[in-house]
Amino acid sequence: MKFTWVRWGVLPVVVLMAGSMALAQDQSGSQTSGQSQSSPAPAAQPAPASKPAPSIAQRKENQQDRIANGVKSGQLTAGETANLETKEAAINGETKADRAANGGKLTAAEKAKVNKQQNNLSKQIYKDKHNANTAKYGNNKVGQRRENQQDRIAQGIKSGKLSAGQTAKLENQQKGINQQVSADRKANGGKLASAEKKQVNHEQNQASKNIYHKKHNGATQATAKKP
Predict the structure, then answer these.
(1) Measuring CA to CA, how many Å separate 186 from each of 19, 92, 180?
(2) Coil, strand or helix: which one is 1?
(3) Cβ-proximal residues to 157 (8 Å cutoff; 6+ apart), any chain
(4) Looking at residue 54, what is its pLDDT?
(5) Which residues, other chains included, contact 128 with Cβ-Cβ below 8 Å and sequence gap of 6+?
(6) Using one digit for the tens of pLDDT, what is the confidence trace for 59-71?
(7) What's the CA gap between 194 and 113, in Å, rounded?
(8) Cα–Cα distance, 38 to 131 (Å, whole number)
(9) Residues ≥6 apart with Cβ < 8 Å to 147
């Protein structure tokens, strides 16, 4: 009887201790949860810096690359290329004069003017590359020679060996030969006489020498990254 009393007397104490431990754990969990819920949100990441606008020289180089691609693909005819490069040469000449007058730099107003001119030229390049006028060479020796000349000019533009002014002169020469060939074919039912083919080859030989000379005369397209 004594043992039984002790056993039943201890039981309430054990139950009370277990309840106290459970209450303590519940309070601890509640505090931890409250701290987690009230923790500050992570700071927002700063927005990435905007890409700087291309420099005057970079824009000029980009335009030349686009023109070179158009010449190579046939999207630009000799006449269109000559017109575009004449405009590019004029912008380059104006920029050079402004730099010379300002100790090698451009004022903010001059930069804005050049960028506006390049924007207009950029639209013209796109328009000329996507209109119906394309270089059609045909499967004949005269056409193949003409295509070869255009490929050499395109390579010179891309590499910077040909300046805008030099390219304009070369393409005007090609334009003249193309017009002559077109007129001769029209007068002869779509064909060229032997004498006409000989004349065209002679003119292309002269044009070929001009291409080589201008690509190796040291007057290259400047690519210095000036602001």
Answers:
(1) 110, 39, 10
(2) coil
(3) 64, 65, 67, 68, 71, 167, 221
(4) 78
(5) 70, 75, 76, 80, 83, 84
(6) 999 999 999 999 9
(7) 52
(8) 64
(9) 135, 137
Q: How far is CA 93 from the centre of its chain?
A: 23
Measured distance CA(91)–CA(84) in Å, rounded:
11
Token pair 């269109």 in the structure block, residue: 80
Question: At 24, which amino acid appears?
Answer: A
227, with CB counted inside 10 A (0-12, 13-18, 19+), is exposed
Instruction: With beta carbons less than 8 A apart as the criterion, state whether 49 and 135 touch.
Output: no
What's the pLDDT tens digit per position in 116-159? 999 999 999 999 999 999 999 989 999 999 999 999 999 999 99
Q: Letter for the amino acid at 71?
A: V
* Distance between CA atoms of residues 190 and 218, nearest Å: 41
Task: Using the structure block, give the residue that is written with the tokens 């930069």.
Answer: 111
**What is the band of 218 on the pLDDT scale with cuts at 50, 70, 90?**
confident
- CA dist., res. 56 & res. 62, Å (int): 10
Largest CA distance in the chain: 141
- Within 10 angstroms of residue 219's Cβ, the number of other Cβ atoms is 13
Which tokens is 69 given? 């691609």
Which parts of 38-163 fold into alpha helices (H)?
56-73, 78-101, 108-129, 141-159
Helices 141-159 and 194-215 cross at an angle (nearest 10°) of 10
Q: Please report, for the chain, the start and end positions of each structural domain, with discontinuous segments joined by +.
A: 56-215
Instruction: Report residue 180 as tokens.
Output: 């002559």
How far apart are alpha carbons 115 and 3 in whole angstroms? Answer: 104
189-195 long-range contacts, Cβ below 8 Å, gap at least 24?
Answer: 192/142
